[in-house]
Amino acid sequence: MDEVTALRELEDDVPALTGDARAAARTRLSEAIAKEGRRRAGVLSRRLVLRAGFAATAAAAVTGTVVVATDGGGPRMSALSAAQVLDRAADRYRADGAGAPVPRDDQYLYAKEIYTRTISKNGKRTTHMDEFWISVDGSRPSRYIYDGRIKDEPPLSSHETRWPPTEYAKLAELPTDPDELLELFTRSSSGGIPTYMDFLMLMRDPRVMPPGLQAAAFEALAKLPGIVLDDDEVDALGRHGIGVTYPGMTIGLVFEQGTYAYLGLRLEGVRGARTKGKALVGGEKYIEVRGRVASGVVDEIGRRPR
What we know:
This protein is α+β, with helices and mostly antiparallel strands. The protein is built from 8 helices and 14 strands. It has helices at 3-13, 19-35, 55-63, 82-92, 168-173, 178-189, 193-204, 213-222; strands at residues 47-48, 66-68, 108-119, 125-135, 142-146, 149-153, 162-163, 228-234, 240-245, 251-256, 262-271, 274-276, 279-281, 284-298. Strands 2, 3, 4, 5, 6, 8, 9, 10, 11 and 14 form a 10-stranded antiparallel β-sheet that branches. A two-stranded parallel ribbon has the order 1-7. The radius of gyration is 18 Å and the shape is globular. The chain starts with a helix and ends in an 8-residue tail after the last strand.
């Protein structure tokens, strides 16, 4: 089983969001990724969490089965290389995190996002809003509001951890040298698509990044073999951006043209499809673009940063 097939099967389990279904999906995904490469001694023990971290999963909780799609033709190149875009983004965020309040483990990471979904067949476009309250250390329940629908996630068990982490102390332990960071992420995920998706998760979920980590993550992603540019994108707030993605995947980061500020995620998916072998059958294709409009740290679920 390859990683993309595992993702498709994961999405089939998402709508119910029962504890058993969630655990089974994560187990299958972790096992599939583990089979793709040999794990060396010292590899991080983790639970690979693909929940609201990806827009496809968030959408699945609201509308039904959503499948992260792949694009056999691959993205088209632009004037700049993907590595240049990511390196310029790194320069922009070089000092990011300096002086930022350090979240306590008993607090919550908050984020508010606006996203647009465009149906490929008829061009119909709708706008939606999501909010997240993620327990910093995972010891408390987290809450996700997908376009008005509330989904609560139980605390992590004593045997579960998040990867990438959300605790500031654990983030501060990650290397800020891009080569070392890429090596660490590759060791923990076997390289290729899983490593690319781990970096997307690091960018996607709300976190308070220690100084230098955001820039190092962009530079490490620039060194991932195969990383390429996508077409000109427009995010949910109408900002023009440059897409960066990985071959075979149609989920990627979007950066603002000129400033290289990180805007959010773009993905292509299929709503209501079913898996038949390794092929997708039926469903309605769509394009979704997300932009974050607020983020911060709060003391409890329901509160928002001032």
